[in-house]
Specification:
single chain; about 450 residues; Aldehyde Dehydrogenase, Chain A, domain 1
Length: about 450
């Protein structure tokens, strides 16, 4: 069956319809229309899967996607033009240009945490690039997956865009097939499986993975504003965000002030009992709920820590006195637990972060430009913010992606178009003149070079 879907898509691609820029523009507009017309269904599904309030669902999923579509519609004509480049004098007379051509049939595999945005956002790049796409949403966000199936089936031809639902067994079958590009968002472990499978056909991949993203609060930081922005970024989606601040590294002199302010903002945002707040999401499933509860065991919980098993909710939780020997520092937390590590000298920060190399994101709160330069120059990370959290991913002008264990490749804005197109370099030579130096016999020609 998967083979049939793929064969259909190949036929569709080979019809060359998707190479027409007006076709692509039309499909981007259709996608936008589909989202706008089904906004309520999408928001309801996100609420059912993750307890996301409609505001949060719009802010972090629908809004971001609509912005990306608008950006692609605005720029697609200029992105897709052949790009002329200069030709070295040694090639004279000739012209050189680069053609951005679609890969063909692409696979987009998405996780459950932003199940709408992380399925549809890569699709925008795939459409803009002129590809046919197979979408594979996560089996854990069932309601959003269903809405995606409904929308895609209603607004697009099956040969052009197809959604395949299913768990590990289905994923494994899909990955046995040959695609022209695989765009995967998910965990490091599954990322390795995907890359391994892709190697069978040498299929190019983008891997958007996770990792432990540090949040550094330096002595000169505006503590009140830092606390507010950290609480927002960490507890959005109950911490189930790939770029959530994973742990805090704070200077010892401002730690107490930071904790007091974070407590103030947790109450301000979610009330005295956040697990009852309608604005505070739930944990995706029991497995993750249990995993997070285990991470809290034998730690110094100073704020939160309370849970509601029936609703799968864990309150925003701050854990003090952590070092690298705690299990919570072994893996990406991916939930609303925020451990705090204290530092004395800013040069120690690098050693702390290097225990988990190449984080997906890094956040630094500081007013000190020298320290800003020191940290950003000396730590390798995917991307991040100075004096804020998360929002670097909501800017179409900034490519988003990891490095090393947090991923490879990037997307958003023009980078999405570039990711989903092969750059075909062409040198067009004139027939008028033919400079003979390059041809044999070579005797005596070396001195001409
Ligand atoms: P996951 O790796 O378990 O699942 C991602 C996708 O892979 C899903 O579609 C799933 O069905 C499929 N899958 C799962 N197991 C598989 C297997 N054995 N073989 C083949 N396919 C399989 O990830 P998740 O739990 O859904 O998401 C959480 C992870 O994703 C976190 O590590 C997070 O940091 C990361 N993430 C990264 C980004 C990013 O943009 N870099 C965004 C969101 C989430």
């Amino acid at each position: 069956m998967i083979k049939d879907i793929l064969n259909n898509q190949r036929l569709y691609f080979e019809s060359n319809k998707t190479k027409d820029i007006n076709f692509r523009l039309d499909k981007l507009k259709t996608l936008k229309k589909a989202i706008v017309e089904n906004e309520e269904a999408i928001l309801n599904a996100l609420y059912k899967d993750l307890g996301k309030s409609h505001f949060e669902g719009y802010e972090t999923e629908i809004g971001i996607v609509l912005e990306e579509i608008n950006y692609a519609i605005k720029h697609l004509k200029s992105w897709s033009k052949n790009k002329k480049v200069s030709t070295p004098i040694t090639q004279f007379p000739a012209k050189s240009y680069i053609v951005s051509e679609p890969y063909g049939v692409v696979l987009i595999m998405a996780p459950w945490n932003y199940p709408f945005q992380l399925t549809i956002s890569p699709l925008i790049g795939a459409i803009a690039g002129g590809n046919c796409s197979i979408l594979k949403p996560s089996e854990f966000s069932v309601h959003t997956s269903k809405v995606i199936v409904d929308i895609i089936n209603k607004y697009f031809e099956r040969g052009y865009i197809n959604v395949i639902e299913g768990g590990i067994g289905v994923n494994q079958q899909i990955l046995e097939e040959r695609f022209d590009y695989i765009f995967f968002t998910g965990s490091v472990n599954v990322g390795k499986i995907v890359m391994n499978k892709a190697s069978k056909y040498l299929t190019p991949v983008t891997l958007e993975l996770g990792g432990k993203s540090p949040c550094i609060v330096e002595k000169s930081a505006n503590v009140d504003l830092s606390a507010k922005r950290i609480v927002w970024g960490k507890f959005l989606n109950a911490g189930q965000t790939c770029v959530a601040p994973d742990y805090i590294i704070v200077h010892k002199d401002i730690k107490k002030d930071l904790i007091d302010n974070m407590k103030k903002y947790i109450i301000k945002f979610y009330g005295n009992n956040p697990i009852e707040s309608v604005d505070y999401p739930k944990i995706i499933n029991k497995t993750h709920f249990d995993r997070l509860n285990n991470l809290m065991k034998n730690t110094d919980v100073i704020i939160g820590g309370n849970i509601d098993k029936s609703k799968l909710k864990i309150a925003p939780t701050i854990i003090d006195n952590i070092d690298h020997t705690y299990p919570i520092m072994d893996e990406e937390i991916f939930g609303p637990l925020l451990p705090i590590i204290t530092y004395k000298d800013y040069k120690d920060i690098i050693e702390i972060v290097k225990k988990h190399p190449n984080p997906l994101a890094l956040y630094l709160f500081t007013k000190n430009k020298d320290i800003e330069k020191y940290i950003t120059n000396n730590i390798a990370f995917g991307g991040g913010c100075i004096n804020d959290t998360i929002i670097h991913l909501a800017t179409s002008n900034l490519p988003f992606g990891g490095r090393g264990t947090s991923g490879m490749g990037s997307y958003h804005g023009k980078k999405s178009f570039d990711t989903f197109t092969h750059k075909k370099s062409i040198l067009k030579k004139s027939n008028l003149i033919d400079i003979p130096v390059r041809y044999a016999p070579y005797k005596g020609k070396l001195k001409l070079l």
